[in-house]
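[Automated response] Your request has been received and processed.

Submitted sequence:
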Amino acid sequence: MKPHVQKLPLSQNNSFVARTYCTPNFEVTWHQHIENELILFTQGEGLGFIGNDVSEFKTGDVYFIGPNVPHTFQKRDKNMITSAIVIQFKEDFWGTDFLNLPENLEIKQLIATSQLGLKINEKHKLKLGKLITKMQDASSHKRILLLYKCLAILTKKNCYTKLTEQQIAFHNIKEKIRIEKVFNYSIQNFQNEIKIKDIADLAGMTEPAFCNYFKKSTKKSYVNFLNEIRIGHVCNLLLETNLAVSDICYDSGFQTIANFNKHFLKLKKMTPSKYRILHKKESYFEIPDIT
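Generated structure:
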């Protein structure tokens, strides 16, 4: 399946998009667009898929995603209400020469780096959240000034974590469509048993050829990619439910407790029980009142 090319509505009075998307309008499949995207989650949690990265998102998280980077955010539960303030802008919306000014060198470098997908660190996301929330209701030149402030914050040292080391490599459109088909199938079916043979058949390849192709394209094995999806789902269930760890294990697609514990420890550097205790102590993010 080819990623959906998203086009958000842009009124004649605005040069970029700044608005809230809430369930059912939040739910978007694997997609891409030519605009840069700054997104603040105001409700919900689940798994984010950005390039070849798989990781959890929660209320209060902020991401900056470059143009044409395939991504999707899947909520933890189909009945959950999820919403986000989405800012989308083209790199040249303020003129073709603006970012070439010497004063904007750091912002231009930031936008180039956003091709790797950026998740904003705890220290800066609260301040960014206030600006993004305010931007949604601002008018005229105030919108541009608020966006510029956001980008200036993002240039600060240790402001974000790069989610990938490089973009997914495609040699032609056929390969791109193939990998996207694999991604979509995995996202939709990770709770079930997925055999390498089945996913190789989906890609129209032999098992050895598929394994080599997937690792060359994404810089990780398919098994590791699938386990990242499953462990991300596990983390959400550990924090949002009181289910026993063994029940969570099987609900997430793992076939044995031993295999589950092995992969959880590998990815999270702690046991599931310790993860639940540690992260449930963290404070809950609230969207700030800026009125």
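Summary generated for your ticket: The domain at 173-280 is CATH 1.10.10.60 (Arc Repressor Mutant, subunit A). The chain has a mean pLDDT of 88.
If you did not submit this request, please reply to this message.
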